[in-house]
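Quick log. Single chain, no ligands specified.
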Amino acid sequence: MNRPTPQPGGAASPGRRVVLKSVGAVGLAAAASPLLPVTTAQAAASDTSTAIDWHGPATVSRTTPTLQVVVNPKIRRESPIHDSVYRALRNLDTDYVRFVPWFPYPKLGVAELEPPSNGTTSWDFSLLDPLVEDFEKATRGRSTILNFSTTPEWMWQPAPWTVQDGALRVVGGDNGLAADGTDWTDYTFAVDVTPLATGSQGGGSYAQAGWLVRMRDAGNGYGLLLSNYPYTAPAAAGYIVFVLFENGQAVSVRPTALPFAVEDGRTHQVRTTVAGSDLTVAVDGTDVLTVHDDTFAAGTVGFRENGSESATFDNVVVTSATGTALFADDFSGGLSRWAAPVAYPADPDEPAFGYSQGGKLAVPPSVVADYYRRLVSWYTAGGFTDEYGTFHRSPHHYQLPYWEVLNEVDFEHGISPQDYTTLYDAIVTAIREVSPRTKFVGLALGNSAGLDYYRYFLDRKNHQPGVPLDLISYHFYAQPNSADTADAYGPDGFAQADAFITTVGQIEEIRTALAPSVRTTVDELGTILPGSATQADPAPIPDAYWNFSGGIYAYVFARLALMGIDIVGESQLMGYPSQYPSVSMLDWTNGEPNARYRVLQLILDEVRPGCRLIEVPDQSSPDGAYVLALVDKGRRKLLMINKTNAPVSVDIEGLRGAHIRIVDQQSGGGSIRAERNAAEVLTLGGYAVAVATLGSVKTRG
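-> predicted structure:
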């Protein structure tokens, strides 16, 4: 998750899983969702309250609300909020909780970090076991979905840095530096730069080459990108992008449109000069960028690519301000003068967003499958025999209800539908040898609109005989524009949600045509603020944001329940600065719930599988509240979501005297507030989510 990806019209930090997480190319031009007619909070009740036919057509809900738990340092036993985190998880007490040891923390998610060699292996569960044990204890008695999504990096090729045809070829891998030069101050870094169109985002490709100056270490200094990624809307044909790195994070990303196109495979002579607080860049003899920044006064040079991005670099020359040659390399001597990116940090708590690299397996699929067979056997069968015949004994005999095969394969390694299906079959077959009762979840797409994946994967003729297809999964994150205020979150976020729902309809057409018995889990549903993603020092998050984000979950949950989607999981239990704080359901300083957690709790309490869902008529207003009617064990209820940051009044017959449970900016992350409604209308505060219980359904007279 790893390329600086600003939202249109503004700068952003690295995006989630490339790096601000793709929302599935959810073009904002999708039709707006139906909304209830609303009035201002001061308006009186009208004579035209919406009436609901409680005996009319209905959909019986089969949708389970749930969440995902992503492994990170805040949920480790060493964390001061560990107990609060797991208490919050236990209190939700739901099925299909998804557990994901994710790639930014390789030591917390990969059991064999080094390849077997000379009769020895690197199998080590000492950091993984406490995480799994605590999760299993907190979800005891419930069905769960485990996804050890990160395959060991040694199973993939190419290596991030190689010399090919006399030039440096960089494929992902994050920041790599010259071995010398951390004390260089003012100098010019000249290099031949060739961006290659291997980057992938939203189903499209882009070319982007990155180089570094004044790098104090791999995490602190300046980066420049030559790119044709569409950093702005409308997009330019090419960009020069300035990136400020601090503590391993891209804290500032500033794209500038170029007067020429950046093309795949075209080589440019680039000169970057740092002098005092000024940085200038010339491309092919033309000055294209001047930046004034005094964060770093000295540091060496290097190169940067992320994810599937790649480029070649050659003919490096570094010259001091006085004309003295400081460094030169044409790579004829290999990489001896460079410190290529480290595969994983020694500190298990240090994020390494560059870990998941390489777009092609360096080993047969059977080796990947054997890795997962051994890993699952450790947790279900008391141990396993390694590659050299040594038995590793385990104390674990857990049941494994569901296993999800890899994560966001369209982003992490950029696996094609064909190659993923081959891997899925091999992994599932291997796991079933040691855990025969386990069911499997496939795809876990980051870009839900990648319809070719569903068409290929759900066609049983593309699988080996006997390989089960139990569930598919995909993800959605609404991403407000980086320049948005709290008032603008709603128009941006709910429009993206509507576009995602349109995409779900397309997926359902494919699924029902090819594999109607296969169920669906949307197991990552949330929102991401561009300024509060992977930055070590993220932008402050307004209090209203948590209610907005909870509203997105409630709204998409309601719409998907009407469509018959089986599982809808909120993402994620715990995030924190540098690990997507804006997706967290808990306060990372004390482990206490925020409004996102409370909204999920409200839906778990009030909108149960088996209730009758009734679409409310006349929801045609372009903004306001969305309402879903339901009958739960004979009781009439209304789920109401304010899609704006202004008070709105909902006018539905029967609201006077209704019992209301509400999560709004007044309650915040505190207990769900309860009250009686004394008026004919109900006023919802900004981004509020509420359930009104109106009483029992009356028998038709």
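Confidence is low (pLDDT under 50) at residues 1-47.
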